[in-house]
């Protein structure tokens, strides 16, 4: 973290902002800094932890989300709105995962791909991280409508694709600061560098905006929709409630466990940026390590999405088994397969059960 009037902290990864060199030359009084906080141990931790974690997340997430995209895009022809949102979610997760090898190399060797790729990769990371959270909210809204409203309202229509476009556009707009301010510093690190007169206020505003759009809003939407959905299921007679309720509870708990710690640390950083609360080098180091660990856990949610939203559905697993039997066995000839809906037990009763 950057501490004005107390110390100059050496930047680690993308947790700080820097002044432009022209703003510092011949105008900055370096005598105000009482100490230099060297974060060599933080960088060493990043060199070991981040590549290992990113490698695991990349392999698991690539396998799961690729299966989801393949099934939804090529084999399942009749889609509900939830199917469309899950497909977009899987695409966002895949694009997010594809940025991880670049950040792993950045942690070990520094950024070696130039300023343009630094900007593009940072923006791509933000676009897909934010859009993924928004699609989770869209899924919760659609499941709420599917359970509490008429079955006819669950079909795919033009509004569904408009919503998807709006989600992607909002995420792209939120990524514009990465295109403007991310660059490669003298230590070959891909980091945000803000002008001196915009540094603290700009970084804090961006962080708080990302917290609101990427966590607070999706969490509130998911919480309200899934609470009402669960309450509706409990009051429904003659249906099996235990499994749908367990799915709902699992989705919410996993979202909180993976996203809440990262956003708490990020909010603390934004507050420190404004009020300069951190004056200890040790505390700053712990904050840097905390942001690395919690952000990695938040990223791992992209690996869990296929399990939470697709593979927990019995119909999807049955569909995969039928596809495997159809294309994996040389003894069977190609034949048309009956379409199996993902959101219900039957194609004409999408609200008869809750299956994500």
Automatic annotation (TrEMBL):
Domain G-protein coupled receptors family 1 profile intervals: 58-303
Pfam families registered for this protein in UniProt: 7tm_1
Superkingdom, taxonomy of origin: Eukaryota
Disulfide bond in keyword set: no
Residues annotated as transmembrane: 42-66, 78-97, 117-135, 155-178, 198-227, 239-256
PROSITE patterns, sorted: G_PROTEIN_RECEP_F1_1 (PS00237), G_PROTEIN_RECEP_F1_2 (PS50262)
Keywords on record: Cell membrane, G-protein coupled receptor, Glycoprotein, Membrane, Receptor, Transducer, Transmembrane, Transmembrane helix
BP terms from Gene Ontology: calcium-mediated signaling; cell chemotaxis; immune response; positive regulation of cytosolic calcium ion concentration
MF annotations from Gene Ontology: C-C chemokine binding; C-C chemokine receptor activity; scavenger receptor activity
Membrane topology of this protein: Multi-pass membrane protein
Cellular component aspect of the GO annotation: external side of plasma membrane
Compartments where located: Cell membrane
Main location, first listed in the record: membrane
Gene3D superfamilies: Rhodopsin 7-helix transmembrane proteins
Similarity remark: Belongs to the G-protein coupled receptor 1 family.
Designated name of the protein: Atypical chemokine receptor 4 isoform X1
Organism (species): Castor canadensis
Annotated gene: Ackr4
